[in-house]
Design brief:
The chain has helices spanning 33-40, 44-62, 80-84, 106-114, 116-119, 121-128, 142-156, 175-185; strands spanning 29-30, 67-73, 91-98, 130-136, 168-171. The chain is of the alpha/beta class.
C-alpha cells in the first residue's frame, strides 16, 4: 500500500510522485479505506459522501460482492474548497468486481438488471451520493477488460480542463477495514 500524496499546485493529486519510471508512487494510489477516510473526512459534505461510499460498500457486501477493488475519483479528490471556493460535488466510484459464485455471463447481466439500486448510476447517486460504475472481473475476453480499463484510467486521470491528476484505489475484500473506516468517520456507526 502507498500513501496519498498532497494536492499539487493545481489542487489535484499528482499523477505520480518523483519520476514516473523510477517505480515511485503513481496513480492509482493503492491505500486502505481507513487511510482514504482519514485523509478526506475534512468537512461535513465530505463526511456525508464518505458515509454514502461506506453504505454502498455495505450494500455490495450484502449481495455477496466482496472481491475486487474500487477506483475513487471525482471532485472529491480535488481541493475544490481552496481552488474553486466550493464543496466537492461528487465521488466517482469505479468498482472492478468479481461476481458472486454462479453469476457470470447472462446470469450476471440479469442480476445487474434486478439490482438497479446498486448498478444504476442515477439511483446510486441518489441513494449513496456516489457516481457508481462497474467492471466485471468474471471470465471475459481480455480485450474487453483492457479496453474498459483504458477507458476508465483515461477518464479518471484528467480533469475536464485536461490537467493530469491522480486517483485512489481501495480493495473491496476488507470488511475489517470498512469497520475501521466507519470508526474514523463516525464512531457510533462502527458496530453496524
Amino acid at each position: 500500500m502507498s500513501s496519498i500524496p498532497d494536492f499539487d499546485i493545481n489542487g489535484v493529486l499528482p499523477p505520480f510522485t518523483g519520476t514516473p519510471v523510477a517505480g515511485e508512487a503513481r496513480s492509482p494510489y493503492q491505500v486502505t479505506l481507513t487511510a482514504f477516510v482519514a485523509r478526506f473526512a475534512t468537512t461535513p459534505t465530505r463526511r456525508g459522501m464518505l458515509r454514502g461510499l461506506l453504505q454502498l460498500r455495505r450494500a455490495l457486501r450484502a449481495v455477496k460482492i466482496t472481491h475486487g477493488f474500487q477506483w475513487l475519483d471525482g471532485s472529491f479528490l480535488e481541493d475544490v474548497e481552496s481552488h474553486e471556493g466550493r464543496e466537492p460535488r461528487d465521488l466517482d466510484v469505479v468498482s472492478y468486481v468479481v461476481p458472486p459464485d454462479g453469476l457470470s455471463g447472462v446470469a450476471w447481466d440479469l442480476f445487474v438488471r434486478s439490482r438497479l439500486d446498486l448498478f444504476d448510476r442515477q439511483q446510486t447517486k441518489k441513494s449513496f451520493g456516489c457516481d457508481a460504475f462497474y467492471v466485471s472481473l468474471s471470465p471475459l475476453d481480455n480485450r474487453i477488460l483492457v479496453r474498459l480499463t483504458a477507458y476508465w484510467f483515461g477518464l479518471l486521470s484528467h480533469r475536464r480542463d485536461r490537467v493530469w491528476k491522480g486517483f485512489v484505489q481501495v480493495p473491496l475484500d476488507t470488511s475489517d477495514d470498512d469497520q475501521a473506516a466507519w470508526a474514523v468517520l463516525e464512531p457510533s456507526e462502527a458496530s453496524r
